[in-house]
Amino acid sequence: MKISSTAPLHLSNREVLSHLLDQKIDNDHLSACITLKRARDRAFARAKYPLERDKERPEEDDPALLEPLTEEDQQVLDVAERRGLSDESVWIQDEVIRYLCAEYNPTARQTPEGVARLADELQDHQLTKAEVLQLCNLAPTEPVTLYAIIEEADTRFYPSAEAKLDEIGNQVYETLLSQPPSDLLPYTSTYEQGGGGGEEEEGEDGYAPGYVDMETDLATEEMLQQEQEFVFEGGKEVGVDEEKDGDMD
């Protein structure tokens, strides 16, 4: 088993989340620039080449769209239009952010500085790179979870395995926030549940409560069974027992 003596080179979930949040800011700005560029192009086209149907439109273009821009601002809009923006990549970006910020993931309660400090402290326990990465991503604080992540913990930490696991759990716990920061609240599942409201109440098994008519269900099932006893060949209804050899050929 190879022991890690340096900080892990793989990206943790918190590093991925930070990267996606920065990318989202860039994509939002790019989307706004593309929308503005297209709106200005339409406004200039209507002003230069007016059509009869444009005169019948109740709304008018914002006069600010016809105002000239500086050369630098115009270049920003032109570059944004050439770059374009993929709806699929934006959807994937948002879904991954929501997954990492879900309440069953500790990523939203971590900080980049805390993860870096935790990865550095875990090097003192002679853990593998994979174990360090798992501990940073899952942020377990209970010994039972640590036993599942750290291979052969009893042998490697003999004779004080429990004390060593408690120490690791405390180090992980010290890097976790009590709740996600305000900038991540829009992506957390607790925020969606608290702000959504109006959701239909579900039963214990996950089904919406309602009345089930057993007599109707039994009658429908019996009718379906009767229909299955017949096959139709050439428009003639034939019982199963009346079929002849070769009818289905």
Give the topology.
Layout: H1 13-48, H2 52-55, H3 71-83, H4 87-100, H5 112-121, H6 129-138, H7 143-149, H8 153-156, H9 161-174, H10 189-196, H11 214-227, E1 230-233, E2 236-239
Structural features, described:
By secondary structure, the chain is mainly alpha-helical. Among the domains are: 13-100, no CATH class; 109-174, RNA Polymerase II, Rpb4 subunit (Growth Hormone, Chain: A, Up-down Bundle), CATH 1.20.1250. 54% of the residues lie in helices and 3% in strands. It contains eleven helices and two strands; from the N terminus they run αααααααααααββ. It has helices at 13-48, 52-55, 71-83, 87-100, 112-121, 129-138, 143-149, 153-156, 161-174, 189-196, 214-227, and strands at residues 230-233, 236-239. Strands 1-2 form a two-stranded antiparallel ribbon. It is elongated, with a radius of gyration of 31 Å. The chain starts with 12 loop residues before the first helix and ends in a 10-residue tail after the last strand.
